[in-house]
Task: structure prediction
Amino acid sequence: MQILRADVLGFCFGVRRAIELAEAALCGGKMVNTLGPLVHNPQETVRLAAAGIRTVDSPDDVEGDTVVIRAHGARPETYAKLRQRHLQIVDATCPFVNKSQRIAQEFTNQGYTLVIVGHPDHPEVQGILGYIAAPTYVISSPEDVDILPGKIRPGVIAQTTVNEQTYLKVITAISERFPDHAMQNTVCSATRERQEAARQLAAKVDAMYVVGGRDSSNTNRLAEICRQVCPKSYLIETADEIDPNDLREIQRVGVTAGASTPDWLITRVIDRLRKIDEAKTAS
Result:
């Protein structure tokens, strides 16, 4: 059985940077808190907790004097609460998310109604909404364009981890209904590269494994893309979830991973696939 890795997979720049900043903060022997999970990967969160990086839900829960703003960013009022407590803030907001926040403000300052293509409960989207006082709409599909009020001038951005093809379809629907609109494709390059690499690999294999947390938006998008091309595509969090029975008739298997998936989890998946292949060959 041939095992193929996607050309681009695993940690993106923003997530890797956030983890490195959090681990660097530990060097001074300080207690380090992160507002929400640093990554949407439960196994990596457990590893970070063992190292001394604890996850808290709100500024009121922070213990010690150091808090990390994760790559998803945070609302302005969150920063204000942290400063009121005189906490040391390590800002690990991804530069791509900072760009989305800036463009969102520019659109509203220009008189556009902000429309975000993404998921309303995602922390990145919630962070962006904190910078906008005017009415804002979050939609996730071209069909949702019909729910927008008819007299607005949409200024459209994307959650950085959204499926780019979905974003482009929404833009087409917006263009048809609202001739006067503005748009900026804020799907980050890391997301775009991982999605394209996964799509290309899924077309070449008999089965596909997408490694990452089930609560990770970008990992779920990768799984959706792979299933469109390769029906035998499986989203797994760990190597233990691989069922050898799924690989009985498989000649080529592909592996990709979400932007919040650490290298050590990807390595374990590939090692298990090799052992399964060795067992098949021996039998």
Summary: The mean pLDDT is 94. The domain at 2-10+192-282 is CATH 3.40.1010.20 (Cobalt-precorrin-4 Transmethylase; domain 1). The CA atoms of residues 49 and 88 lie 19 Å apart. The longest helix spans residues 263-282.
